[in-house]
Design goal:
There is one protein chain. With 495 residues, the chain is of the alpha+beta class. It has a domain of 64 residues: Dna Ligase, domain 1, CATH 3.30.1490. It contains 13 helices and 27 strands. The strands form 8 sheets. A 5-stranded mixed beta sheet has the order 5-25-24-21-20. Strands 15-7-6-22-23 form a 5-stranded mixed beta sheet. It has a 4-stranded parallel beta sheet with strand order 9-8-13-14, covered by helices on one side. It is globular and about 65 Å long.
């Protein structure tokens, strides 16, 4: 999708010929490396990723083929100062969202105060079955992915909160492993904050939310199975944490407890890291035809016999209609000003907002409240007249199902494309882990829109990924190193 909006902020070159300080050493290295060499490294990465099986499925496509997510070998750099700001912002946001979830399933103070409308409870992701249920440490979103975009040197926005079953962390980890294999010299020069401890941090957090009194909790990862688009990630994380990867048929309920079938007999399960949506998790309560869940699981959960991460009903806080109120949640629950801002958002359930959006549809981005993955979305500046007309009818048929936002001038990063190195739009999904404490592994999943002019970074819509380097020191200077030139002679270059 192409678009015409204001000038984009280039994260390497804020102005033509003016390289930002954080990128100076890397830019010296990059300009001395032949594009063909980078392309060869990219091909090597693709071959290795394919051998490992790092693939995803695109739902709705007839062939059902598994695909590699394209990987760009040019990293995105973030300074330590920028990261301190971002990490504080996403932690603040997730803390408030967890407090909001506890509130709406208990006293509903924020609704009584008139800050969030009562209609928020009509969200299909709000689960009345969870009302009055106390969860360990009052944590609902144990794993959260917060999507961030940048529009200038100092301005970052939160685009979306992912609290149900956020995915993508396996690509963050594998991308880093690949970059360290392809460019070990760069990691010896740069002080890049590590990410490989994420699985251990996640496991520690999951163990910390087991029922009180359990000394050595058994944790499992519950997956829908091999046909799920994120199955590679499920298997990868289970292996990295050293826990069992299970499907619904591997678990059963007995005497207000959940057990796992093993060759040594039943083994009690204390914490389930579930990658299954609420609707499919217990056929006795939700979808009765679900073959993915565990009959009776919700009853055990409600009675405190097992912990689910993330909690049932967490989706009530990552709905795009709920997103509008997060800054007010931060003020209400924490008594703080939001560190990170929302994108200005129009509620199409409001007559004035609806009228404005319909008059300016070709300037805005319109999203389904329940949509995800880049589906059900209109990018106005990129749409044809016919697409605009059709989407207008969809909005008018159910305006409360949509929100609208201005078309942001997303920042760009240098990216290896077929024509060489060119700027492409990016976003960032840091992962926030909440248990007895809250932590964020430096960086996150950086997604890149590989099509020229595209603002859509989702892998299902043709986007790719980059490694994100959070620099522990921002004063890296170019170094001299030897490199073989095209004539086979060694020469010194800046690195």
């Amino acid at each position: 999708m192409s678009h015409t909006v204001e000038k984009f902020f280039d994260e390497m070159q804020a102005n033509v010929g003016d390289v930002r300080s954080i990128y100076k050493a890397y830019q010296h290295w990059l300009k001395n490396v032949p594009t063909q060499q980078l392309a060869a490294k990219r091909a090597e990465a693709e071959l290795l990723f394919r051998r490992v099986g790092i693939t995803f499925n695109v739902y709705g496509e007839a062939d059902g083929a598994e695909r590699l997510i394209p990987f760009d070998v040019i990293p995105r750099l973030i300074s330590s100062q920028e990261w301190a700001h971002l990490s504080a912002g996403v932690v603040q946001r997730v803390r408030a969202l967890n407090m909001f979830l506890h509130d709406i399933y208990h006293k509903q103070d924020i609704i009584q105060a008139g800050i969030v409308p009562y209609t928020i409870l009509s969200n299909p992701q709000y689960r009345p079955e969870m009302f009055g249920v106390d969860v360990p440490n009052q944590i609902y979103a144990h794993i959260a992915g917060v999507d961030l975009v940048r529009t200038s040197e100092s301005q970052f926005y939160v685009l979306e909160d992912n609290l149900r079953t956020p995915s993508g962390v396996s690509y963050m980890l594998e991308n880093r492993k690949m970059m360290m294999r392809l460019f070990p010299d760069l990691f010896r020069q740069y002080a890049v904050a590590p990410v490989e401890h994420y699985p251990q941090v996640l496991l520690n957090n999951l163990r910390s939310v087991a029922q009180s009194g359990v000394q050595d909790p058994t944790v499992v990862l519950l997956s829908p199975g091999a046909y799920n688009s994120a199955y590679f990630e499920h298997a990868f994380l289970a292996q990295q944490m050293g826990i069992e990867l299970v499907e619904g048929q591997d678990l059963f309920v007995r005497n207000n407890a959940v057990f796992m079938r093993t060759t040594q007999g039943p083994r009690r399960v204390d914490v389930i890291y579930r990658r299954i949506d609420d609707d499919f998790i217990d056929p006795l309560v939700f979808k009765p035809d679900s073959m993915l869940g565990v009959p009776g699981l919700l009853s055990v959960y409600r009675n405190g016999g097992v912990t689910l991460a993330n909690a049932v009903g967490t989706g009530a806080a990552d709905d795009k209609a709920t997103y509008i109120y997060v800054p007010e949640m931060i003020k209400f629950y924490l008594g703080e000003e939001p560190i990170l801002q929302n994108v200005p958002t129009y509620e199409l359930s409001k007559e004035d907002d609806l009228a404005y959006v319909l008059d300016h549809l070709d300037e805005l981005v319109v999203k389904e409240v329940q949509g995800s993955g880049g589906y059900g979305m209109l990018v106005g500046p990129a749409a044809t007249k016919q697409e605009l007309a059709e989407f207008k009818l969809r909005i008018l048929s159910r305006p409360s199902s949509y929100i609208a936002q201005p078309t942001l001038a997303l920042s760009t990063c240098p990216t290896l494309v077929e024509q060489g190195i060119a700027p492409r739009h990016v976003d960032l999904r840091p992962f926030v882990l909440s248990g007895k404490s809250v932590s964020v592994v430096p960086g996150g999943l950086c997604r890149v829109a590989l099509k020229e002019g595209s603002l859509v970074v989702n892998s299902s819509q043709g986007g790719g990924t980059k490694d994100t380097w959070v620099l522990e020191r921002d004063d890296i200077q170019p170094q001299k190193t030897s490199q073989t030139n095209k004539q086979g002679k060694k020469e010194e270059v800046a690195c």
